[in-house]
UniProtKB/TrEMBL annotation:
This is Immunoglobulin domain-containing protein. The lineage of its organism: Eukaryota, Metazoa, Chordata, Craniata, Vertebrata. One of its GO terms (cellular component) is plasma membrane. Residues 20-107 form the Immunoglobulin domain. Gene3D superfamilies: Immunoglobulins. GO terms for biological process: immune response-regulating signaling pathway. It comes from Rhinopithecus roxellana (Golden snub-nosed monkey).
Length: 249
């Protein structure tokens, strides 16, 4: 009965072999060889071309309703372990035929290392996401620096404005005092000149005289005269300027 059943089942399907992430691997990088066959496989075997080396794997897991798989990992690819590989599996009560050969090639690296090879089960988008997060970090730092600089300028402007407000009233008071002192000075000059002229009389004919013109504030003269006790008009007068000739002997 067993012989009739085996004849009815027929030959086992050939397995397949593949490499993750590929068949060309940089020197020293890992690679995983994957052997696949039908459901119900007891063990997979990975063989070199000359069958001098082989490795059995009993850790077979099911991929779907009709396929199973076993993985063989090579941690560091080198010239010694590169070459041709093929798979075979055992399903009771016999071994299957061999798969096609897979040529594992090692790639020599000179100078800078090539782009990293992603391992099985790892996400290929991880480096991209890390680079994106670093770019966002740089942008955040730049925005923070600009914000702090603008805040510093605002504080300096506020302090400068406060200083101007404090100095404003004192300057205006000084200017008012100077303006009030100018008419008084002109009046004093006129009074002194008039006093000298009254005591000495008119200058003799032919004598040399120097005439100086002084611009006088008529309102200031009136105010000084009223303060001296003159009972004349105290009504406000229109502001005007008078030029007086002052003779100097």
């Amino acid at each position: 009965k067993e012989r009739k059943m085996n004849k009815w089942v027929g030959p086992l399907p050939r397995p397949s072999i593949s490499a993750e992430p590929g068949t060309v691997i940089p020197l020293g990088r890992p690679v995983t060889l994957q052997c696949r066959g039908p459901v119900g496989v007891y063990a997979f075997r990975l063989e070199r071309e000359d069958r001098s080396e082989y490795k059995d794997n009993y850790n077979v897991f099911r991929l779907g309703p009709f396929e199973s798989e076993a993985r063989f990992r090579i941690d560091s690819v080198s010239e010694a372990n590169a070459g041709l590989y093929r798979c075979i599996y055992y399903k009771t009560p016999r071994w299957s035929e061999h798969s096609d050969y897979l040529d594992l090639v090692v790639k020599e690296t000179s100078g800078d290392t090539d782009s990293p090879v992603t391992e099985p089960g790892s996400s290929a988008d991880a480096p991209a996401s890390q680079g994106l997060s670093a770019e966002h970090l740089y942008i955040l730092i730049g925005v923070s620096v600009v914000f702090l600089f603008c805040l510093l300028l605002l504080v300096l402007f506020f302090l400068h404005r406060q200083n101007q407000i404090k100095q404003g009233p004192s300057r205006s008071k000084d200017e008012k005092q100077k303006l009030q002192q100018r008419p008084d000075l002109a009046v004093d000059v006129l009074e002194r000149t008039a006093g000298k002229g009254g005591g000495g009389g008119a200058p003799a004919a032919g004598s040399s005289q120097e005439v100086t013109y002084a611009q006088l504030d008529h309102w200031a003269l009136t105010r000084r005269t009223a303060q001296a006790g003159s009972p004349q008009s105290t009504e406000p007068m229109a502001e005007s300027c008078t030029y007086a000739a002052i003779a100097r002997h």
